[in-house]
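Hi everyone, sorry if this is the wrong subforum. Our group has a chain we'd like a structural model of before ordering constructs, and none of us has done structure prediction before. Sequence below.
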Amino acid sequence: MLKTGKEHLECLRDGREVYIGGEKVDDVTTHPAFAESAKSMAALYDMKANPANRDLMSFEEDGERFSMYYLKPRNKEDLRHRMKAHKKIADETCGLFGRSPDHVSSFVTGLAMKPEVFDAVGPGYGDNLLNHYDYMRRNDIYAAYAVLPPAGARNPDFYHRKSMPVPTLRVVDERDDGLVISGMKMLATGGVFADELWIGNLLPIAEGQEAEAVTCAVPCGTRGVSLWSRKPFAQGLQNKFDYPLSAKYDESDVMVLCDNVLVPWERVFVHANTEMSRGIYVATPSHAMGNHQSNIRFWAKLQLMTGVLSKITASSGNNQIPAVVDQLGRMAALEATLGGMIHGQIEAFEGWPGGDDGYVTINRRYMYAALNWCTENHSMLIEMLRELMGGGVFQMPADVSVMSDPDLRQKFEQFWSTPFMESLDRMKLYRLAWDLVGSEFAGRHTSYEKFYAGSYFVVRNHSFREAPWDDFHAIAERQLDAMEVPEE
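Answer:
Right subforum, don't worry. Here is the predicted structure as tokens:
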């Protein structure tokens, strides 16, 4: 089933408990802090359900159609098809929805490509995973994940000394009908707009912390689940013109609090296994499939930045200056570099995870290299845009209300126009650029792009793990063996 935008918005009215500070949000689809982003999310579903996009955005299996990001690829063409669908979704939001509906779904699809990994957890967990994957694709589920402990909350001795409960989410009871979980998880990006939460662990769990080693799926409207939002950037905006990206592309980030939440056994995939709680993602194509989407999403964002950079320089005529042309060429080369890295992941695909099903995945080494490239270079790319934008944004009137006064509008159009661009067009361009480099929305994205895949050492550890060190050593050893020691 392919949901429409209207159907997805209706799913968000499930009685979920959302807080902005001390305010409880009754309906995220109508609240001013979330309504425009909810519409943007719904538009993704309408785009996907549009018959004109049917072949690009979905696939057929056993007479039913499913979203393309649930396709388990068996060949290069399947991988290419998935990539194009990811790119179409990313293009719709200029890569500014980091955890769009195709992200966690790709993680789960990767898990479903090697369900036997869950046999190491215990009997029945592999079946649980496959059944849940089937449920997700049949209902076109949008899941957000909360897979990290709250910062500073990994030392239980501190809380025991204070006679306080450990805040990290853990299993507090086992019952015939399921597990009971309580505590906090971070950071469910997109959780306000999702159907359900995927709760797990992307960081290692120490022995003795088996209660934290739980992976499960929980609908957002489940009794005992509350979502605590950071400050929404759309809240308090006077109009969409002055903050065009903040107004409609703030996917939000929420802390997830669970208060004695019952999770039925069929929605539990890992329990009390510290090694596999994290291991399921790298022992299957899950981590590779999910972060391939992240690479593509960043590519769409980089294309927006490249277009804005070019138009900013053209608005003042600076694009004729050789030094500026040099920087434009550099940005174009960087965009092409990432595009090539993404295509290379498909052309050099791997016959992994193997097995009788014949599934394949993108080249993991190339994907992790691109992931490292994105996290390392975003700040530099933003700085290029900031530098070439200069102080132009600060020369603009405080807001677009200047256009409502005929006398002020006449003066604005007279003095702010250039031979290259009319005043209102310049104002629009600089407002867009500022929302990319200087607003609160932009600041959040700067931090997000640095840390969405983990700290630098976490990202680079993936490349270390996947590198063919024996092959590298053999190349060096051949040269060492060929070196002749002079005779005495």
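For your construct planning: The two ends are 80 Å apart (CA to CA). The chain has a mean pLDDT of 94.
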